Write the structure tokens for this entry.
Amino acid sequence: MKAVHFGAGNIGRGFVGLLLHEADYEVVYSDVNAELIAALDAADTFTVHEVGEGARDHEVSNFRAFDSTQKMKEIVAEIASAELVTTAVGPNILRFVAPAIADGLRARGDDAPPLAVMACENAINATDILRAEVEKLMTDAEGQAALNRAVFANTAVDRIVPAQAAGAGLDVTVETYYEWAIDRTPFGGTEPVIPGATFVDDLAPYIERKLFTVNTGHATIAYYGFSAGAHAISDALGRPEVELAVRAVLDETKQLLVDKHGLDAAAQQAYIEKILVRFANPHLPDTVDRVGRQPLRKLSRHERFIGPAAELAERGTTPVALIDAVVTALRFDVPDDEQSVELQQKLGALSADDFVREVCGLSPEHPLFAPLTAAIANTAG
Ligand SMILES: NC(=O)C1=CN([C@@H]2O[C@H](COP(=O)(O)OP(=O)(O)OC[C@H]3O[C@@H](n4cnc5c(N)ncnc54)[C@H](O)[C@@H]3O)[C@@H](O)[C@H]2O)C=CC1
Ligand SMILES: O=P(O)(O)OC[C@H]1O[C@](O)(CO)[C@@H](O)[C@@H]1O
């Protein structure tokens, strides 16, 4: 069995690639990073090192790698004969991997089994985003027929994989915890066998619980931590004011998740406590810069802050802690992070109203617009 995986980075090697390897797939990596591809090409194995309680090492083998800037024809041929395609490239990059998937589907024989396509990104229904990009390239009759050769399934992925130390080579350090939830329904009973993944009938609560708890909480710690001058995430969370802020934010998202999905409040609180322990893992060399990366994406309409805050406002509750977290995120000023630089430029150039419209995607009619704009304007003043 073969899986083509786009994005041989931290999640690609330390999580999705590992679970596919352990499910007996040969993993064919595709990445734009020529150095990384050359290293994978030259290696027979790499090691995923877990850190924290119960940690152990996992060896990954049986992989190949292609540079997608040079070897598109080869990647298309691999997709034509694969069982699975997965991605871990970032939600904004999905449109760049769509052409290879479209061509791979076109090159696939009619009698080949359906190709399972799963985007493993931190975004609500990332596979739908990928599917829409593939569909744009399939408007002709042949393309429509080729689309039927694929099953697109949304997923939710959770494992903290920090930036790797210089000199780590291909090896990846990860936390012990992981969860890969996959929507079972598109497969109609023929889902792939991946023992490390959990196939579920209703993915929405999983994705929102994960994004609005793990990712909202983590990013809150990053922005408050950055603001307080902390470097490591575990140090940031060790500051009482940061812990208070993240607990307040997670209380608000808990309210939404419990009301919207009928989650049990005590179970959600236990999930929060478990996640705070994961964030505090002192063996995980994770930084506020990495976790806060790409702030414009994180402050966009359906992401971890504005997404839950908007829904709370629509349900009649004006969030306080989430708005404070957004205001704190605006201080994220990291010269190496393109979106952080752009964020600072926008703050200098736009009024609070225009910022909320443009960056957060809210119109003045939305119930979150006025309180959020006021909070941002107060900070600027
Ligand atoms: N690192 C983490 O703890 C987690 C990350 N995620 C999500 O996983 C995704 C990947 O994140 P990371 O692995 O941390 O990032 P990363 O930066 O380590 O890896 C991304 C890889 O994608 C490659 N890439 C970029 N453009 C490409 C293209 N057009 N074709 C093929 N490859 C391309 C990059 O060269 C890089 O190797 C993101 O959506 C992130 O939100 C989800 C859960 C946890
Ligand atoms: O910043 P991004 O790209 O959304 O993804 C990284 C996030 O995903 C996580 O791994 C959680 O699954 C956190 O480490 C981090 O907050």
In short: The longest strand covers residues 26-31. The domain at 205-380 is CATH 1.10.1040.10 (N-(1-d-carboxylethyl)-l-norvaline Dehydrogenase; domain 2). The mean pLDDT is 96.
